Amino acid sequence: MSQDFSHDTISISRRIKAPREWVFSAWEDPQARSIWGPPSKDESIEFLENDFREGGLDVHLCGQKSDLRFRVETHYYEIRRPQRLLFTERVTMDSSSLSVSLVSVEIRKIGSVTELEVTIQIASLAGSGMIEGTRNGWQRALSNLTAYLEARKVEAE
Mean pLDDT, 10 residues at a time, over the chain (157 residues)? Predict the structure, then answer.
């Protein structure tokens, strides 16, 4: 096995003080994803294609605002509103595959909050640094999602 090949399972949970439908809609809407998806203020996401449906394909570029070097292709396999998403993500740079992931998103109502559980099964073709970058990126993005939705809820009240 090549030293560049590695794999892992990443599980991230968040409890969000917002309705479950809002959490689901934030995944569906590319404008919302462009707000909460970038891990930091210095990064950006630009959607080239958006086809959020079973069998659909999203394509976006991401990275530093001045250098959107990563291309992400998302293929949707199951969309169950408002409780579940199942999709794959392939990340490339300059036509070279960096990683392929199977991502499951579970959205559960627990009392007055929504529990979000994201599981990413990643195979990296670029070493363990790609896995750590994926883990950190998803953790930050889901923290951004939580802040985005909780601020929206406060505005609505």
Answer: 84 96 96 96 96 98 96 98 98 96 98 96 96 97 96 76
User: And the tokens for 134?
Assistant: 């994926």
Phi, psi of 28 (to 5 degrees): -75, -35
Q: Which of 151, 143, 122 is nearest to 15 (CA)?
A: 143
* CA distance readout (Å), 3 to 41, 68, 69, 92: 33, 27, 23, 18
Q: What is the DSSP secondary-structure string of 87-124? A: EEEEEEETTEEEEEEEEEEEEEEETTEEEEEEEEEEEE
121, two tokens: 């099964």
Phi, psi (degrees; rounded to nearest 5) at 29: -90, 115
Choose among 133, 99, 108, 103: nearest CA to 118: 103
Q: What is the DSSP letter of 46?
A: E
Q: Which of 94, 97, 102, 155 is nearest to 126 (CA)?
A: 97
Side chain identity at residue 24, one-letter code: F
State the DSSP string of 49-100.
E---STT-EEEEEEEETTEEEEEEEEEEEEEETTTEEEEEEEEEETTEEEEE
pLDDT of residue 152: 83
In whole angstroms, what is the distance from residue 131 CA to residue 135 CA?
A: 6
